[in-house]
Each structure stands twice: as C-alpha cells, then as structure tokens.
Design brief:
Elements (H helix, E strand, L loop, with lengths): L2 E5 L2 E4 L4 E8 L7 E7 L6 E6 L6 E3 L7 E6 L4 E6 L8 E8 L7 E4 L3 E6 L1
Parallel strand pairs: 2-11
Antiparallel strand pairs: 1-3, 3-8, 4-5, 4-9, 5-6, 7-8, 9-10, 9-11
C-alpha cells in the first residue's frame, strides 16, 4: 500500500526550471519502482522518467533525457523530478507513480497529478 501526493507544479517560462516533488507514504515505498508520467491536453499519458525497483537505475524518455533528472530521498520517502530547459511541449499534468515496474501497466499506485504549464 502506497499513497502518493505530488507538488511543485506551476507556470514557468520556456527555458526555465521547475522541481516536482512526490511524497510517498507506506512501508512498501522502498520496494517500489518509482516513476513520473505526464499527460498533455488531447494526448495519452506517457512515461517521463523513473527509478528501477532493484538496481536504482534511472531511465528517461528520449524527449526529456538531458533536461530532466529523477531522484529519491529514501529517508524522507520522497521522489523528485528536476526539470530544466523546459519547453512548451512539456506542458502537461505530471503524475507520480509507484509499482512493480516502470512500465505504465506495472505501476500500481498513482498520485492525482500536478499541472506544469510552460509558456513560450
């Protein structure tokens, strides 16, 4: 059982930065893969970045690699998404997720999302 709450979304200009946070509760946190997904208006939800369950390796979508960084603070049971060099196409609702794998179908728990708007 894991509960997730995102925060840190907002309005930012293109080229700017934003840091999203995800507070996780539940004793199973350390055994979960953690990831960020996003859904833009009129588009399907897509994978952004994640940390694998066993190895702690990080993975990123091609569209954000080099600009976004995912990290965890296990002591605080927090996961973060540092977003740099933001583009208008990054505008979306961002969701924190946890589960068995970084595949969307393997994510068992989802936050309610936080909106990121990037202006041109």
């Amino acid at each position: 059982q894991v509960q997730l709450v995102e925060s840190g979304g907002g309005l930012v200009q293109a080229g700017g930065s934003l840091r999203l946070s995800c507070a996780a509760s539940g004793s199973a946190y350390s055994r979960q893969a953690m990831g960020w997904f996003r859904q833009a208006p009129g588009k399907e939800r897509e994978f952004v970045g994640g940390i694998s369950k066993n190895t702690g390796n990080t993975y990123y979508a091609d569209s954000v690699r080099g600009r976004f960084t995912i990290s965890k603070d296990n002591a605080k049971t927090m996961v973060y998404l540092q977003m740099n060099s933001l583009k208008p196409e990054d505008t979306a609702v961002y969701y924190c997720a946890a589960g068995r794998s970084l595949d969307e179908n393997g994510m068992d728990y989802w936050g309610k999302g936080t909106l990121v708007t990037v202006s041109s």
